[in-house]
Amino acid sequence: QGQEKLSCNPKKENGTHVVLCELGNPMKAGARITVDMELSVSGLEDMGDAITFHLQLRSKNSPSPSNASVTVTVPVEAEAEMQLRGNSLPAVTVLPTSWHWVEGSQRPEDHGIKVEHVYELHNRGPGTVSGVTLSLAVPHLLGDRVLLYLLELGTEGGMNCSHHPDLNPAQV
Protein backbone atom coordinates (compact mmCIF):
# COMPACT_ATOMS: atom_id res chain seq x y z
CA GLN A 1 0.00 0.00 0.00
CA GLY A 2 2.69 2.47 0.92
CA GLN A 3 6.29 2.77 -0.18
CA GLU A 4 9.04 2.22 2.36
CA LYS A 5 12.80 2.10 2.05
CA LEU A 6 14.37 -1.19 3.02
CA SER A 7 17.24 -1.53 5.40
CA CYS A 8 19.86 -3.63 3.58
CA ASN A 9 23.29 -4.72 4.81
CA PRO A 10 26.02 -6.21 2.62
CA LYS A 11 28.16 -9.02 4.03
CA LYS A 12 30.36 -11.86 2.85
CA GLU A 13 29.09 -15.40 3.37
CA ASN A 14 31.09 -18.47 2.24
CA GLY A 15 33.18 -16.39 -0.17
CA THR A 16 30.04 -14.90 -1.76
CA HIS A 17 28.86 -11.32 -1.51
CA VAL A 18 25.43 -11.29 0.14
CA VAL A 19 23.01 -8.43 0.70
CA LEU A 20 20.47 -8.99 3.48
CA CYS A 21 17.32 -6.86 3.46
CA GLU A 22 14.80 -6.80 6.31
CA LEU A 23 11.31 -6.78 4.77
CA GLY A 24 9.36 -6.28 7.96
CA ASN A 25 8.65 -7.86 11.30
CA PRO A 26 6.12 -8.97 12.23
CA MET A 27 4.49 -9.76 8.90
CA LYS A 28 0.87 -10.80 8.71
CA ALA A 29 -0.04 -14.18 7.22
CA GLY A 30 -0.82 -13.95 3.49
CA ALA A 31 0.90 -10.54 3.14
CA ARG A 32 2.09 -9.66 -0.37
CA ILE A 33 5.13 -7.46 -0.83
CA THR A 34 6.69 -6.12 -4.01
CA VAL A 35 10.34 -5.14 -3.79
CA ASP A 36 12.24 -3.10 -6.37
CA MET A 37 16.00 -3.29 -5.94
CA GLU A 38 18.69 -1.29 -7.67
CA LEU A 39 22.14 -2.83 -7.44
CA SER A 40 25.37 -1.13 -8.38
CA VAL A 41 28.05 -3.64 -9.35
CA SER A 42 31.60 -2.65 -10.27
CA GLY A 43 34.38 -4.61 -11.95
CA LEU A 44 32.23 -6.19 -14.66
CA GLU A 45 34.95 -6.05 -17.33
CA ASP A 46 35.79 -9.75 -16.88
CA MET A 47 32.26 -11.03 -16.15
CA GLY A 48 31.43 -12.08 -19.69
CA ASP A 49 28.08 -11.16 -21.23
CA ALA A 50 25.83 -11.73 -18.16
CA ILE A 51 25.79 -11.63 -14.36
CA THR A 52 23.63 -13.92 -12.24
CA PHE A 53 21.92 -13.06 -8.96
CA HIS A 54 20.47 -15.68 -6.61
CA LEU A 55 17.54 -14.30 -4.60
CA GLN A 56 16.12 -16.14 -1.63
CA LEU A 57 13.28 -15.35 0.79
CA ARG A 58 13.82 -16.62 4.34
CA SER A 59 11.92 -16.22 7.56
CA LYS A 60 13.69 -15.86 10.89
CA ASN A 61 10.60 -16.92 12.82
CA SER A 62 9.52 -20.17 11.23
CA PRO A 63 12.01 -22.16 9.21
CA SER A 64 10.44 -23.09 5.90
CA PRO A 65 11.59 -26.18 4.01
CA SER A 66 10.97 -24.43 0.69
CA ASN A 67 12.96 -21.23 1.34
CA ALA A 68 11.64 -19.83 -1.94
CA SER A 69 14.54 -18.88 -4.22
CA VAL A 70 14.91 -17.61 -7.76
CA THR A 71 17.88 -17.02 -10.07
CA VAL A 72 17.95 -13.85 -12.17
CA THR A 73 20.42 -13.45 -15.04
CA VAL A 74 21.04 -9.92 -16.27
CA PRO A 75 22.87 -9.22 -19.55
CA VAL A 76 25.98 -7.07 -19.23
CA GLU A 77 26.66 -4.51 -21.94
CA ALA A 78 29.75 -2.37 -22.03
CA GLU A 79 29.12 1.21 -23.01
CA ALA A 80 31.73 3.74 -24.06
CA GLU A 81 31.45 6.80 -26.23
CA MET A 82 34.44 7.38 -28.45
CA GLN A 83 35.16 10.83 -29.85
CA LEU A 84 37.57 11.62 -32.70
CA ARG A 85 38.97 15.14 -32.96
CA GLY A 86 41.26 16.38 -35.67
CA ASN A 87 42.79 19.53 -37.07
CA SER A 88 45.42 20.66 -39.53
CA LEU A 89 48.32 22.98 -38.76
CA PRO A 90 48.16 25.40 -40.51
CA ALA A 91 44.41 25.24 -41.05
CA VAL A 92 44.63 26.81 -44.53
CA THR A 93 47.51 26.49 -46.99
CA VAL A 94 47.89 28.20 -50.36
CA LEU A 95 50.78 27.36 -52.65
CA PRO A 96 52.32 30.39 -54.35
CA THR A 97 51.76 30.48 -58.11
CA SER A 98 55.53 30.45 -58.66
CA TRP A 99 56.00 27.15 -56.76
CA HIS A 100 56.83 24.02 -58.77
CA TRP A 101 57.34 20.46 -57.64
CA VAL A 102 60.94 19.34 -58.13
CA GLU A 103 61.09 15.70 -59.16
CA GLY A 104 63.78 13.63 -57.45
CA SER A 105 64.52 16.29 -54.82
CA GLN A 106 65.32 15.24 -51.24
CA ARG A 107 64.29 18.63 -49.81
CA PRO A 108 60.82 18.73 -48.16
CA GLU A 109 60.11 22.26 -49.43
CA ASP A 110 60.40 20.99 -53.02
CA HIS A 111 57.42 18.71 -52.34
CA GLY A 112 55.07 21.44 -51.03
CA ILE A 113 54.19 23.28 -47.86
CA LYS A 114 54.35 21.23 -44.68
CA VAL A 115 50.92 20.58 -43.15
CA GLU A 116 50.58 18.54 -40.00
CA HIS A 117 47.33 16.67 -39.40
CA VAL A 118 46.66 15.79 -35.75
CA TYR A 119 43.94 13.34 -34.70
CA GLU A 120 42.95 12.59 -31.11
CA LEU A 121 40.77 9.65 -30.13
CA HIS A 122 39.09 10.08 -26.74
CA ASN A 123 37.01 7.71 -24.66
CA ARG A 124 34.27 9.71 -22.96
CA GLY A 125 33.18 6.62 -20.98
CA PRO A 126 31.58 5.47 -18.91
CA GLY A 127 33.31 2.13 -19.66
CA THR A 128 36.91 1.39 -20.55
CA VAL A 129 37.88 0.24 -24.03
CA SER A 130 40.61 -1.95 -25.46
CA GLY A 131 41.44 -3.29 -28.89
CA VAL A 132 40.23 -0.14 -30.66
CA THR A 133 41.15 0.17 -34.32
CA LEU A 134 41.13 3.54 -36.06
CA SER A 135 41.40 3.40 -39.85
CA LEU A 136 42.28 6.70 -41.44
CA ALA A 137 42.19 7.00 -45.24
CA VAL A 138 44.17 9.97 -46.58
CA PRO A 139 43.81 10.80 -50.29
CA HIS A 140 47.41 11.16 -51.44
CA LEU A 141 46.88 10.85 -55.19
CA LEU A 142 44.59 12.71 -57.58
CA GLY A 143 44.55 10.57 -60.68
CA ASP A 144 48.24 9.91 -61.32
CA ARG A 145 49.40 13.16 -59.65
CA VAL A 146 50.53 13.61 -56.06
CA LEU A 147 47.89 15.45 -54.01
CA LEU A 148 49.47 15.06 -50.58
CA TYR A 149 53.01 13.82 -50.08
CA LEU A 150 52.91 11.76 -46.91
CA LEU A 151 56.16 12.11 -44.96
CA GLU A 152 55.61 10.36 -41.67
CA LEU A 153 53.09 8.89 -39.29
CA GLY A 154 53.49 8.93 -35.51
CA THR A 155 51.54 8.05 -32.40
CA GLU A 156 51.57 8.92 -28.71
CA GLY A 157 50.14 7.20 -25.67
CA GLY A 158 51.20 3.58 -26.16
CA MET A 159 49.35 3.02 -29.43
CA ASN A 160 50.55 0.83 -32.26
CA CYS A 161 50.38 2.08 -35.79
CA SER A 162 50.64 0.52 -39.20
CA HIS A 163 50.96 2.74 -42.25
CA HIS A 164 50.42 2.77 -45.95
CA PRO A 165 53.37 1.46 -47.99
CA ASP A 166 53.48 4.71 -50.04
CA LEU A 167 54.69 6.71 -47.01
CA ASN A 168 57.61 8.97 -48.06
CA PRO A 169 58.36 7.14 -51.34
CA ALA A 170 61.15 9.61 -52.37
CA GLN A 171 62.82 9.29 -48.92
CA VAL A 172 62.69 13.05 -48.33
Automatic annotation (TrEMBL):
<dbReference type="GO" id="GO:0001525">
    <property type="term" value="P:angiogenesis"/>
</dbReference>
<dbReference type="GO" id="GO:0009897">
    <property type="term" value="C:external side of plasma membrane"/>
</dbReference>
<feature type="domain" description="Integrin alpha third immunoglobulin-like">
    <location>
        <begin position="83"/>
        <end position="171"/>
    </location>
</feature>
<keyword id="KW-0472">Membrane</keyword>
<protein>
    <submittedName>
        <fullName>ITA2B protein</fullName>
    </submittedName>
</protein>
<dbReference type="GO" id="GO:0033627">
    <property type="term" value="P:cell adhesion mediated by integrin"/>
</dbReference>
<keyword id="KW-0325">Glycoprotein</keyword>
<dbReference type="GO" id="GO:0098609">
    <property type="term" value="P:cell-cell adhesion"/>
</dbReference>
<dbReference type="Pfam" id="PF20805">
    <property type="entry name" value="Integrin_A_Ig_2"/>
</dbReference>
<dbReference type="InterPro" id="IPR048286">
    <property type="entry name" value="Integrin_alpha_Ig-like_3"/>
</dbReference>
<dbReference type="Pfam" id="PF20806">
    <property type="entry name" value="Integrin_A_Ig_3"/>
</dbReference>
<dbReference type="InterPro" id="IPR032695">
    <property type="entry name" value="Integrin_dom_sf"/>
</dbReference>
<dbReference type="GO" id="GO:0007229">
    <property type="term" value="P:integrin-mediated signaling pathway"/>
</dbReference>
<keyword id="KW-0401">Integrin</keyword>
<dbReference type="GO" id="GO:0005178">
    <property type="term" value="F:integrin binding"/>
</dbReference>
<feature type="domain" description="Integrin alpha second immunoglobulin-like">
    <location>
        <begin position="3"/>
        <end position="76"/>
    </location>
</feature>
<dbReference type="GO" id="GO:0008305">
    <property type="term" value="C:integrin complex"/>
</dbReference>
<dbReference type="GO" id="GO:0007160">
    <property type="term" value="P:cell-matrix adhesion"/>
</dbReference>
<dbReference type="InterPro" id="IPR048285">
    <property type="entry name" value="Integrin_alpha_Ig-like_2"/>
</dbReference>
